[in-house]
Amino acid sequence: MFRITTRGGDGELVLTLEGYLTGAWVQELEICWRKVTEQAPGAHLRVDLTGLCRVDAAGRDLLSEMYRAGARLVAKGCVMPVLVREIVEAAQEDLCVSTGSGAAVSQEL
């Protein structure tokens, strides 16, 4: 089971994810993400992962892509904050490698 709840206002879009971000659900999230960002260009996107139970490799890749595109990932609990931290750290490492600098970029979790 997987559920995506969308809401927006004041220049912010929120995608609340619940259940299992695995298999075919990853594609559903990507379709939803692209659709809402297309409909509200320039809006800040927040993705609430608090209700997620499991994320497979494809789901992780999509969340990484969303983060790199400017989405703010929010999580609570034991597992999802670790996933968010890993995504942020990987993006920072990629940025340092691509710019050739050793400087780290800070990101609020």
Summarize the structure.
With 109 residues, the protein is an alpha/beta fold. Helix 1 packs parallel to helix 2 and helix 2 (57-68) packs across helix 3.
Commentary on this structure:
By secondary structure, this protein is α/β, with parallel strands linked by helices. It has helices at residues 24-39, 57-68, 80-99; strands spanning 2-9, 12-21, 44-55, 72-74. It has a 4-stranded mixed sheet with strand order 1-2-3-4, covered by helices on one side. It is globular.
Q: What's the arrangement of secondary structure elements?
A:
Blueprint: E1 2-9, E2 12-21, H1 24-39, E3 44-55, H2 57-68, E4 72-74, H3 80-99
Parallel strand pairs: 2-3, 3-4
Antiparallel strand pairs: 1-2
Helix pairs in contact: 1-2, 2-3
Number of helix segments? 3
Tell me about the largest β-sheet: 4 strands, mixed
Count the beta strands.
4
Supply the CATH architecture: 2-Layer Sandwich
**Hey, roughly how much beta strand do the residues contain?**
25-35%
Strand order of the largest sheet: 1-2-3-4
Task: Tell me the domain tally.
Answer: 1
* Helical/strand content category: alpha/beta
What's the pLDDT, averaged over the residues?
87
Regions with pLDDT < 50 over 5+ consecutive residues? 101-109
CA radius of gyration is: 14 Å
Question: Any key phrases for this structure?
Answer:
109 residues; Transcription Regulator spoIIAA; four-stranded mixed beta sheet
